[in-house]
Amino acid sequence: MAGLMKPAEHRNASGPAAIPDEIVNFLLTPTPGTWLTAARERLPELLIDHANCELKAASTALGFIYRYPEQTALCWRMSRLAREELRHFEQVRTILDERGIPFRRLTASRYAGSLRAAARTAEPGKLADLLIIGALIEARSCERFAALVPLLPADIGRFYTGLLASEARHFERYVKLAREAHDGDAESFDARLSEFLRRESELINTPDPQFRFHSGVPESPTG
Q1: Which of 25, 26, 192, 217 is found 20 to 30 A from 10 (Cα to Cα)?
Q2: How far apart are the C-alpha atoms of 116 and 130, rounded to whole Å?
Q3: What is the pLDDT of residues 49-72, one digit of tens each?
Q4: Does an H or E element contain 86, and which?
């Protein structure tokens, strides 16, 4: 997409896990260092919310199937994605259990809700926007996994490295489905996508009262 290439400093090639090129060339900005520092210091919260995120991702995929059962290609892809996300949920739960960290439901961060608030309400724009949001969530997850790898315990770093390929693949599927659902030409789709990318970048780079896997700049050490 024209106008969406990013500076080289967004790349994490010097660390154990490099951010996939397609993610580097998609997101407008990298995760702030203050969030990465908080994630390293608040590992139990990070892992608990990661588990919650995987569960929500599976639920979101099933939600697409429930709302759009007549769209065969969408349903097949979302069915496979839901199974993968549930597997990831199981893997994070295993890590929590091994560390003696009890799983609990956490309140949702502002991130996904704020993005969904900008989605259109009429079809087919609603479907296209929700799929764009899915792509943004997967892309940011992939970017953060890669950035966290050198900061976390080795076993979690290896696990996050192993998630990079699937998150990048989920991102690409969401973008492809969003383009197919968009009612317009490629230029109008890119314009719509750019609006969401700017909103996503703002959410990531502004102060956030909560610490979550997709939260913005932490305001305080608690919450």
Answers
A1: 192
A2: 7
A3: 999 999 999 999 999 999 999 999
A4: helix 72-98
Say which residue the tokens 């919310």 belong to: 49
Residue 149 CA: distances (Å) to CA of 21, 94, 122, 160, 210: 17, 18, 40, 6, 22
The pLDDT value given to residue 221: 54
For residue 99, give both structure tokens: 């560390």
Is 64 in contact with 74 (CB distance < 8 Å)?
yes
pTM for the full predicted model? 0.90
* Predicted local distance difference test score (pLDDT) of residue 4: 37
Give the sign of the dihedral formed by CA 186, CA 126, CA 80, CA 165.
positive
Tokens representing residue 110 in the block: 């502002």
Give the per-residue pLDDT at 205.
97
Q: 218 by DSSP, 3-state: which? A: strand
> Which pLDDT belongs to residue 19?
87
Q: How far apart are CA 195 and CA 29, in angstroms?
A: 14
